[in-house]
TrEMBL record:
Region described as Disordered: 1-27
Coiled-coil segments: 39-76
Composition bias, Acidic residues: 1-11
Domain Syntaxin N-terminal, first and last residues per copy: 34-160
One Pfam family cited in the UniProt record for this chain: Syntaxin
Organism: Solanum stoloniferum
Alphabetical keyword list: Coiled coil, Protein transport, Transport
One GO term (biological process): protein transport
Protein name: Syntaxin N-terminal domain-containing protein
Keyword field contains Transport: yes
Length: 167
């Protein structure tokens, strides 16, 4: 009688060396790195937006400082110079805000397009990561714009009070 357990000719490959690349229930696994999934470019764009946020923070701080400085100034010429600086900074904030908004909208479009790639469909880890990052950028943008608007309203309100008390 043949020894079936020790006969190596009956097996082509041991069970752990099959070509399935992992668990049978997981299906075929295609190893992908983050570059193939589109995350490298995505996070580079996120970093660019973060740099714009840093610039926005600097401008908001400059506006706040100029506003505080304007409270102590008594000369009209000095006040005019401060107001001009502030107007320039407000314009710059508007430009940066438009850039950030357009970049976030661009990320949204890319997120939708990225869902067509294999392994990146709706609900996949890549999709969830991209969506969560974009949502946090949107919230940060909304909060920054609210902060800027509050500062503008305070400046305008206090300026009105000064003008009305002088008149």
């Amino acid at each position: 009688m043949n020894d079936l357990l020790n006969d190596d000719d009956n097996f082509d490959a041991p069970r752990h060396q099959n070509n399935r690349n992992g668990d049978v229930e997981m299906g075929t696994q295609i190893p992908m790195n983050s570059g193939e999934l589109g995350l490298d470019d995505f996070f580079k764009k996120v970093q660019q937006i973060e740099k714009q946020y840093e610039r926005l923070n600097e401008l908001l701080q400059k506006l706040q400082d100029a506003h505080e400085e304007s409270k102590a100034v008594t000369k009209a010429s000095a006040m005019k110079a401060i107001k001009q600086r502030m107007e320039k900074d407000v314009d710059e904030v508007g430009k940066i805000a438009r850039v950030i908004k357009s970049k976030i909208e661009e990320l949204d479009k890319e997120n939708l397009a990225n869902r067509n790639k294999p392994g990146c469909g709706k609900g996949s880890a890549v999709d969830r990561s991209r969506t969560a990052t974009t949502v946090s950028l949107k919230k940060k943008f909304k909060d920054k714009m609210a902060e800027f608007q509050t500062l503008r309203e305070n400046i305008h309100h206090e300026y009105r009070e000064v003008v009305e008390s002088d008149g």
